[in-house]
């Protein structure tokens, strides 16, 4: 049986249409999968499981009182503790890291708090939104946490604080730099293991956390975060604003063996800042381990920095 030219052409056209339709379906399925995986990755990043406050013996805890206050933008209720030195108007505000709470080193935070109290500083430590006992359902790795910290600064002022020092760890360190750049009520910053730019930090780590290729998943994840939560990593760069803190002192602490946030982040902050920015580079410890593993030297460095603030204040 002979196949006419018209019949053959029709069959060929039909096959081409089927191939094109199959390709379109594959592209649509791939796009749906890309959107779904990116949305899930963004949701997991912004909705980490809360870390509950540890159960501890009351005899290891200095006397404190419970406090609550609002962030400056969304009016989210944030909860924390205030450790008071009678007659002191100086306060250290502790800012914790991602997936942590008001005790960034667990029970080991109490010796640090006691040391600060012995230096004559009140201590205000609190849970960022969506952490510990605070309200809020979204974590933004610093973008909105900055408003939480500004709320803590405002509350410290209400409690009579005239000198305020921010002590931040990891995400809290980066948040402290940005908050200080926006608030003249901050007199100094101690930033332990900060990242220098949020988008660059996520670019370097999202693929590690998700086991997905950076392209195209990073950008689609950012897009999903912007659409669903209204957050944009481009908007949070401590490196871009650290210069605005001058002439107030900034003390960076970072281990050269940090595997989570490489010490190069603090190098960048040091270079972007002025002469008011100093770096203590530790070694043989990992991310935010300088305090728990080099405790004596760590507290000595903190004491020297805080003493220098008092000396500068006396000169003024």
Can you characterise this structure?
The radius of gyration is 25 Å and the shape is elongated. The protein has an eight-stranded mixed beta sheet with strand order 1-2-4-3-5-6-7-8, with helices on both faces. Helix content is about 45%, strand content about 15%. It has helices at about 5-45, 110-120, 145-160, 170-180, 200-210, 215-230, 240, 265-270, 290-295, 295-315; strands at about 65-70, 75-85, 90-95, 120-125, 165-170, 190, 250-255, 275-280. The chain has two domains: about 1-45 and about 220-235; about 55-195 and about 235-315, Rossmann fold (3-Layer(aba) Sandwich). By secondary structure, it is an alpha/beta fold. The mean pLDDT is about 90.
Based on the model shown, name its key terms.
316 residues; alpha/beta; Rossmann fold; eight-stranded mixed sheet; 46% helix; elongated
Largest sheet: 8 strands, mixed
**C-alpha Rg (nearest Å):** 25 Å
Give the rounded overall mean pLDDT: 92
- Fourth CATH level, the homologous superfamily of the largest domain: Alpha/Beta hydrolase fold, catalytic domain
Which regions are unreliable across 5 or more consecutive residues at pLDDT < 50?
Answer: none
Q: How large is the count of helical segments?
A: 10
Give the CATH level 1 class of the largest domain.
Alpha Beta
Characterize the quaternary organization of these chains: single chain
Total beta strands: 8
**Percent of residues in beta strands:** 15-25%
Indicate the percent of residues in helices: 40-55%
- Widest sheet: strand order? 1-2-4-3-5-6-7-8
* Total separate domains: 2
Helices and strands: which structural class? alpha/beta
Please give the alpha-carbon distance between the first and last residues.
106 Å
**What is the CATH-assigned architecture of the largest domain?**
3-Layer(aba) Sandwich
Here the CATH topology of the largest domain equals Rossmann fold
Order of helices and strands: HEEEHEHEHEHHHEHEHH
Shape: elongated
